[in-house]
Amino acid sequence: MITFESWNDAQAQIPDFPADSETKGALETLRWAYETYGEKLVYACSFGIEGIVLIDLIAQVKPDAEIVFLDTNYHFKETYETIDKVKARYPELNIRIQQPDLTIEEQATQFGPDLFKTNPNKCCEIRKIIPLQKALAPSTAWISGLRREQSESRANTNYINLDKRFEKIKVCPLIHWTWKEVWRYVTKHELDYNVLHDQGYPSIGCAPCTKPAFSMDDIRSGRWSGSGKTECGLHTEA
């Protein structure tokens, strides 16, 4: 088994997933990942459009898979509504809501109000990074919906990656999917998705830090607009 600790010696065990298959290697990657890691594999899902595709693919491989949602308590109501729809469509999935240690009020007492404005990196650390670290603690590997097309920082993502921040193996089945292919899949299979996608939000995070995208050439341009921040930290090295 490929683990964080055995990565250097075990990389040769990674199969060559077929990027030209019907799902561009996604189903093949998921089958291998669940066969390899079983209950030690978890999907950390934000319930954006890529997440909707992955959930549908995962349900075909492991209907009772564990899915973790990081509830920062700052999400749009439409995001919570999307989760309810997914639960209804895939009742066997084990969808777990991971909360931060601090409520918004407790965070404001310690760090001042609206930390997402004064120190967005610290806010992400408290409400996303630390909760995911706790959620992943029992796991050997986790699944992410990263696509190479999403941003320059994600352009070199592989199907199977060494995650130095969380000291896990990170599985990214959708690396070769384009934005159009994601939407084509959702439309073909009539999947429920966050309605904010229809209102100019290609990438959806916390409500205070997410605006409609300026350009579809950069679908993450609406995240932390004007702050110089481009990532929450979940996908950057510690």
Number of structurally distinct domains: 1
Main sheet attributes: strand count, strand direction, barrel closure? 6 strands, mixed
What fraction, in percent, of the residue positions are helical?
25-40%
- Overall pLDDT: 91
CATH topology: Rossmann fold
- Taken from the alpha-carbon principal axes, the silhouette is globular
Number of strands: 6
> Which structural class should the secondary elements be placed in?
alpha/beta
Text of the CATH class: Alpha Beta
Low-pLDDT ranges: none
The side-by-side strand order for the widest beta sheet comes to: 3-2-1-4-6-5
The Rg value, from CA coordinates, equals 17 Å
CATH architecture: 3-Layer(aba) Sandwich
CATH homologous superfamily heading: HUPs
Helical stretch tally:
8
- Our measurement of the CA-to-CA distance between the termini, rounded to an integer number of angstroms, reads 24 Å
Order of helices and strands: HHEHEHEHHHEEEH
Strand content: 5-15%
Question: What's this model, at a glance?
Answer:
It contains 8 helices and 6 strands; from the N terminus they run H-H-E-H-E-H-E-H-H-H-E-E-E-H. It starts with 6 loop residues before the first helix and ends in a 50-residue tail after the last helix.
What do you see in this structure?
This protein has 238 residues and is of the alpha/beta class. It has a single domain (6-209), classed as HUPs (Rossmann fold, 3-Layer(aba) Sandwich). 34% of the residues lie in helices and 11% in strands. The protein has helices at residues 7-10, 26-37, 49-61, 77-89, 104-111, 115-118, 120-136, 179-188, and strands at 41-44, 66-70, 94-98, 141-143, 160-163, 168-171. A six-stranded mixed beta sheet has the order 3-2-1-4-6-5, sandwiched between helices. GO terms for molecular function: 4 iron, 4 sulfur cluster binding; adenylyl-sulfate reductase (thioredoxin) activity; metal ion binding; phosphoadenylyl-sulfate reductase (thioredoxin) activity.
